[in-house]
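Now for one record.
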Amino acid sequence: MALVKLLVTIAITTAITIAVITTRTTTTVERTSFDAPRTQTTRPSRFLAQKEVGERSPSAADHCNKDPEICSLYGGGGSNSTVTCCNNKCIDVASDDKNCGACKNKCKFSQTCCQGQCVYLSYDKRHCGQCNHSCEQDELCVYGLCNYA
């Protein structure tokens, strides 16, 4: 009976220790010699690290509903640019599976957007396995490989 109590006590102590370690909310303050201490960085956990104030997310979209010309900056401008304003976001309609070739033109399951067309990479001779990878004239594309067998 004493062995069971000991095991339960160890298990509870381990669980509490793990809970305390993972919910630590501030990082340590580093000091160099007699300099003033730096400000503390607050992080709720290592998986949900907070951004610094004023830092912009690289996946944030520029809102283009008021000025659609913002999107031409992303595609290098010019008449060959495939970046356009869809749902208030700048989208490259040549490669986006949810806006393929035009806004709100969603590719079917297992299709990929290549040059503004929804294609099956497993069986398309012009896009075999990846976009713009053509098979030779006598070869077939099977399972994304040219001349599979």
Q: What stands out?
A: The first helix runs from residue 2 to 22. Residues 25-30, 51-56 have pLDDT under 50 and may be disordered.
